[in-house]
Amino acid sequence: xxxxxxxxxxxxxxxxxxxxxxxxxxxxxxxxxxxxxxxxxxxxxxxxxxxxxxxxxxxxxxxxxxxxxxxxxxxxxxxxxxxxxxxxxxxxxxxxxxxxxxxxxxxxxxxxxxxxxxxxxxxxxxxxxxxxxxxxxxxxxxxxxxxxxxxxxxxxxxxxxxxxxxxxxxxxxxxxxxxx
Length: 180
Ligand code: HEM
What we know:
Fumarate Reductase Cytochrome B subunit, binds protoporphyrin IX containing FE
């Protein structure tokens, strides 16, 4: 069993920053499509910029995770919980990388407006507009968002279950300044 009992400060801050930004993007992303085109183009500047930051931070997080040993499973956890949490965490790692990548590809092929992240990175200028490709990445970006939303709800539910029902330190060891 791992001797490590808590996550490092860098990892905790990456976890909370990425988590909050992604949850806000999942909530507000859905309403983007009902906006008029000119307004959508403005809002997408922020959406694509924040998504690009999530992508860069997820690459950092992958690097951190592959080079540092995380705290091990607790004695309060069943074999099922240990396995399920591993599957859940690695699925989230993969999908949180794919989500912004699908967004960037959608932006590259977009036909009806320009996607310029933070008004600086012109993703739509990287490739010729293509309705078929845009549609494929639009569907992938939407489906991945739905799967991430379900996993995030499960992830938060599991953290609360540990904290309030099992009363162990699973949630505490991820809280900045928290003592496991
Ligand atoms: C973790 C990062 C991201 C999250 C959580 C996210 C989330 C979402 C969600 C929930 C939608 C609505 C999908 C639907 O209802 O079908 C959406 C739409 C969209 N996203 Fe993202 N996104 C992210 C990153 C990006 C990036 C990096 C880009 C581009 C560089 C991007 C470009 C777009 C575009 C162009 C749309 C379509 C808006 C429209 O319908 O006109 N997204 N996003």
